[in-house]
Amino acid sequence: xxxxxxxxxxxxxxxxxxxxxxxxxxxxxxxxxxxxxxxxxxxxxxxxxxxxxxxxxxxxxxxxxxxxxxxxxxxxxxxxxxxxxxxxxxxxxxxxxxxxxxxxxxxxxxxxxxxxxxxxxxxxxxxxxxxxxxxxxxxxxxxxxxxxxxxxxxxxxxxxxxxxxxxxxxxxxxxxxxxxxxxxxxxxxxxxxxxxxxxxxxxxxxxxxxxxxxxxxxxxxxxxxxxxxxxxxxxxxxxxxxxxxxxxxxxxxxxxxxxxxxxxxxxxxxxxxxxxxxxxxxxxxxxxxxxxxxxxxxxxxxxxxxxxxxxxxxxxxxxxxxxxxxxxxxxxxxxxxxxxxxxxxxxxxxxxxxxxxxxxxxxxxxxxxxxxxxxxxxxxxxxxxxxxxxxxxxxxxxxxx
Length: 401
Prior knowledge:
By secondary structure, the protein is mainly alpha-helical. Among the domains are: 13-110, Serine Threonine Protein Phosphatase 5, Tetratricopeptide repeat (Alpha Horseshoe), CATH 1.25.40; 325-401. The protein has 23 helices and no strands. The chain has helices at 6-10, 19-22, 37-51, 56-73, 77-92, 97-109, 113-126, 131-144, 147-160, 165-177, 181-194, 200-216, 220-233, 238-250, 254-267, 271-283, 287-303, 312-320, 326-339, 343-355, 359-372, 377-387, 390-397. The radius of gyration is 21 Å and the shape is globular. The protein starts with 5 loop residues before the first helix and ends with a helix. The model is unreliable at 1-33 (pLDDT under 50).
């Protein structure tokens, strides 16, 4: 999954299994075969369910732990398992608030953003001071391009509990979108410094964000340091591997980047990761390997094209570029922009318009993305091509937040 899609599917929850579940196993009983934070929480919840199958909170705890495991492994099957656990909780207690909250969170993980927003809005009306619900609202609004509403929800999180970790990470992402990279790094570092030592994956995720942000501000050495720390905490972490590959690309070490993208794809074999591998192989001059990867990517991306969790933005980029199918790229981009209006989907739409010769429309769409303030290097590069000159693109960007 590309870095700009990380926020919603990988944002830190900073929640834990309930005390009732934790009492069912001795701490040393968790060490056998359950090495990651999510695995430990799954074991605790399963033990609580075995002890009392009619306790809805235990099923909700299991669902939440499974969503964390989905992030650790990049395996969407855990979201399906989480949904089953939620349904088990709701079968016992149909109005169970915590189970419904986890369901909204799982909907986000499956990229069902509008559904997640609708459910979180209803939950917010019921309990207007629940921190996690505001986090879900923030994420859903971000992914749909509702940045004012996302900012409002994030501010509520900070007002409810100043300095809490989920609010800090979301505020950092919003600052990145609005062009305040220094502020985003400051908040991410504050978040990782507040995290419990045992939450190794959460800490690795935030360090990966720090690495990404350092790369955005063109500090590859600082980015590399943060990413190596992430990988030391959580070896073979797919998000960190992908971002470290971007660092290697920025350093001109294209074969090293391709090797890292290959490693990432082996850990998380999703079409979007295969696209990044193909791109890295192409930059490294590995033409035969790149052609094979592109073909496999296109087949895989087509297979999930109509699903919610898809690689459509990558497929748009491929068809608009190496795939040489600009008309298909635009058709797919029109489908995506009708579903969500975030800056990166708008960028993909603008790029498809540009590649189809619809320059005036492309300029209008990229201007909308730039007006938010986003400084992502690829978006700025495409904006430069669409707008005509770097100076013009920078002038549009400076009119944002």
